[in-house]
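Figure 6 in text form: structure in, sequence out.
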Protein backbone atom coordinates (compact mmCIF):
# COMPACT_ATOMS: atom_id res chain seq x y z
CA UNK A 1 0.00 0.00 0.00
CA UNK A 2 1.42 3.40 -0.95
CA UNK A 3 1.18 6.48 1.24
CA UNK A 4 -1.94 7.84 -0.51
CA UNK A 5 -3.73 4.50 -0.12
CA UNK A 6 -2.75 4.41 3.54
CA UNK A 7 -4.18 7.92 4.10
CA UNK A 8 -7.35 6.98 2.22
CA UNK A 9 -7.72 3.77 4.29
CA UNK A 10 -7.24 5.70 7.53
CA UNK A 11 -9.75 8.34 6.41
CA UNK A 12 -12.28 5.62 5.62
CA UNK A 13 -11.73 3.84 8.92
CA UNK A 14 -12.41 7.04 10.87
CA UNK A 15 -15.82 7.11 9.17
CA UNK A 16 -16.54 3.37 9.35
CA UNK A 17 -19.32 3.74 11.95
CA UNK A 18 -20.97 6.40 9.79
CA UNK A 19 -20.80 4.11 6.73
CA UNK A 20 -22.22 1.26 8.80
CA UNK A 21 -25.13 3.45 9.92
CA UNK A 22 -25.92 4.43 6.33
CA UNK A 23 -25.60 0.80 5.25
CA UNK A 24 -28.10 -0.21 7.96
CA UNK A 25 -30.59 2.24 6.53
CA UNK A 26 -30.24 1.11 2.92
CA UNK A 27 -29.35 -2.58 3.25
CA UNK A 28 -31.92 -4.77 1.51
CA UNK A 29 -31.36 -7.32 4.30
CA UNK A 30 -29.77 -6.56 7.71
CA UNK A 31 -27.21 -9.34 7.25
CA UNK A 32 -25.71 -7.49 4.29
CA UNK A 33 -24.46 -4.47 6.23
CA UNK A 34 -20.89 -5.73 6.54
CA UNK A 35 -20.83 -6.75 2.87
CA UNK A 36 -21.92 -3.25 1.91
CA UNK A 37 -19.29 -1.64 4.16
CA UNK A 38 -16.56 -3.83 2.70
CA UNK A 39 -17.59 -3.06 -0.86
CA UNK A 40 -17.67 0.69 -0.13
CA UNK A 41 -14.18 0.41 1.37
CA UNK A 42 -12.88 -1.39 -1.73
CA UNK A 43 -14.44 1.11 -4.10
CA UNK A 44 -13.22 4.02 -1.99
CA UNK A 45 -9.65 2.69 -2.11
CA UNK A 46 -9.84 1.89 -5.82
CA UNK A 47 -10.54 5.56 -6.54
CA UNK A 48 -8.47 7.04 -3.71
CA UNK A 49 -6.63 9.38 -6.10
CA UNK A 50 -9.97 11.18 -6.78
CA UNK A 51 -10.77 12.04 -3.15
CA UNK A 52 -9.49 14.92 -1.08
CA UNK A 53 -9.26 13.11 2.26
CA UNK A 54 -8.71 16.41 4.08
CA UNK A 55 -12.36 17.36 3.44
CA UNK A 56 -15.49 15.97 5.06
CA UNK A 57 -15.97 12.56 3.45
CA UNK A 58 -19.38 11.79 4.91
CA UNK A 59 -21.45 13.05 1.94
CA UNK A 60 -19.29 11.07 -0.47
CA UNK A 61 -19.35 7.94 1.70
CA UNK A 62 -23.13 8.23 2.20
CA UNK A 63 -23.66 8.38 -1.57
CA UNK A 64 -21.26 5.51 -2.21
CA UNK A 65 -22.93 3.40 0.47
CA UNK A 66 -26.41 4.07 -0.91
CA UNK A 67 -25.27 3.14 -4.44
CA UNK A 68 -23.58 -0.07 -3.26
CA UNK A 69 -26.70 -1.07 -1.29
CA UNK A 70 -28.97 -0.40 -4.27
CA UNK A 71 -26.64 -2.35 -6.56
CA UNK A 72 -26.71 -5.26 -4.10
CA UNK A 73 -30.50 -5.06 -4.01
CA UNK A 74 -30.70 -5.20 -7.82
CA UNK A 75 -28.30 -8.15 -7.93
CA UNK A 76 -30.21 -10.09 -5.27
CA UNK A 77 -33.59 -9.44 -6.88
CA UNK A 78 -32.26 -10.60 -10.26
CA UNK A 79 -31.13 -13.80 -8.57
CA UNK A 80 -34.58 -14.36 -7.03
CA UNK A 81 -37.11 -13.18 -9.64
CA UNK A 82 -39.94 -15.38 -8.35
CA UNK A 83 -39.76 -13.69 -4.92
CA UNK A 84 -39.84 -10.25 -6.52
CA UNK A 85 -42.73 -11.32 -8.75
CA UNK A 86 -44.76 -12.48 -5.74
CA UNK A 87 -43.98 -9.28 -3.84
CA UNK A 88 -44.94 -7.13 -6.82
CA UNK A 89 -48.21 -9.04 -7.21
CA UNK A 90 -49.00 -8.61 -3.51
CA UNK A 91 -48.30 -4.86 -3.70
CA UNK A 92 -50.44 -4.56 -6.84
CA UNK A 93 -53.33 -6.31 -5.07
CA UNK A 94 -53.01 -4.00 -2.08
CA UNK A 95 -52.98 -0.94 -4.35
CA UNK A 96 -56.13 -2.09 -6.18
CA UNK A 97 -57.99 -2.76 -2.95
CA UNK A 98 -59.91 0.25 -1.62
CA UNK A 99 -59.81 -0.96 1.95
CA UNK A 100 -57.18 -2.71 3.97
CA UNK A 101 -57.37 -6.48 3.59
CA UNK A 102 -59.18 -8.03 6.58
CA UNK A 103 -55.99 -9.60 7.91
CA UNK A 104 -54.41 -6.15 8.29
CA UNK A 105 -57.30 -4.33 9.95
CA UNK A 106 -56.25 -5.45 13.41
CA UNK A 107 -52.60 -4.52 12.77
CA UNK A 108 -53.64 -1.08 11.54
CA UNK A 109 -55.75 -0.52 14.67
CA UNK A 110 -52.80 -1.59 16.83
CA UNK A 111 -50.47 0.74 14.91
CA UNK A 112 -52.85 3.66 15.46
CA UNK A 113 -52.94 2.92 19.20
CA UNK A 114 -49.15 2.65 19.33
CA UNK A 115 -48.77 5.94 17.45
CA UNK A 116 -50.95 7.64 20.05
CA UNK A 117 -48.63 6.40 22.81
CA UNK A 118 -45.57 8.06 21.24
CA UNK A 119 -44.28 11.36 22.61
CA UNK A 120 -45.44 14.46 20.70
CA UNK A 121 -42.06 15.01 18.95
CA UNK A 122 -41.99 11.41 17.75
CA UNK A 123 -45.53 11.67 16.38
CA UNK A 124 -44.51 14.90 14.64
CA UNK A 125 -41.56 13.13 12.97
CA UNK A 126 -43.82 10.28 11.82
CA UNK A 127 -46.37 12.71 10.45
CA UNK A 128 -43.79 14.76 8.56
CA UNK A 129 -41.87 11.81 7.15
CA UNK A 130 -44.59 9.26 6.41
CA UNK A 131 -47.78 11.25 5.96
CA UNK A 132 -46.49 14.53 4.51
CA UNK A 133 -43.57 12.82 2.70
CA UNK A 134 -41.07 15.44 3.88
CA UNK A 135 -37.46 14.27 3.45
CA UNK A 136 -35.04 14.03 6.36
CA UNK A 137 -32.97 17.07 5.26
CA UNK A 138 -36.11 19.23 5.20
CA UNK A 139 -37.29 17.87 8.55
CA UNK A 140 -33.86 18.58 10.02
CA UNK A 141 -34.07 22.15 8.79
CA UNK A 142 -37.63 22.61 10.12
CA UNK A 143 -36.86 21.36 13.61
CA UNK A 144 -33.29 22.68 13.72
CA UNK A 145 -31.51 19.32 13.98
CA UNK A 146 -28.84 17.55 11.98
CA UNK A 147 -30.03 15.23 9.21
CA UNK A 148 -28.28 12.19 10.70
CA UNK A 149 -29.93 12.94 14.06
CA UNK A 150 -33.35 12.93 12.35
CA UNK A 151 -32.50 9.60 10.65
CA UNK A 152 -31.53 8.06 13.99
CA UNK A 153 -34.66 9.46 15.65
CA UNK A 154 -36.86 7.97 12.92
CA UNK A 155 -35.09 4.66 13.33
CA UNK A 156 -35.73 4.71 17.09
CA UNK A 157 -39.40 5.60 16.50
CA UNK A 158 -39.79 2.69 14.07
CA UNK A 159 -38.21 0.35 16.63
CA UNK A 160 -40.54 1.61 19.39
CA UNK A 161 -43.54 1.13 17.12
CA UNK A 162 -42.40 -2.37 16.15
CA UNK A 163 -41.99 -3.34 19.83
CA UNK A 164 -45.36 -1.82 20.76
CA UNK A 165 -47.11 -3.66 17.92
CA UNK A 166 -45.47 -6.97 18.82
CA UNK A 167 -46.42 -6.60 22.50
CA UNK A 168 -49.97 -5.61 21.60
CA UNK A 169 -50.43 -8.48 19.17
CA UNK A 170 -49.08 -10.96 21.74
CA UNK A 171 -51.66 -9.70 24.23
CA UNK A 172 -54.50 -10.12 21.77
CA UNK A 173 -54.39 -7.23 19.34
CA UNK A 174 -56.18 -3.90 19.23
CA UNK A 175 -58.45 -4.66 22.17
CA UNK A 176 -55.42 -4.76 24.46
CA UNK A 177 -53.21 -2.11 22.80
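Output sequence:
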Amino acid sequence: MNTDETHAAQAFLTHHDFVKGVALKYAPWPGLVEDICQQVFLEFLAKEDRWDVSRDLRPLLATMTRHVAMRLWRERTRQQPEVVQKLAEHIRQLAESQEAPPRYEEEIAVLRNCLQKLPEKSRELVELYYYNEVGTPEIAEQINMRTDTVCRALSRVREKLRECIERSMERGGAAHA
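Caption detail: The domain at 100-176 is CATH 1.10.10.10 (Arc Repressor Mutant, subunit A).
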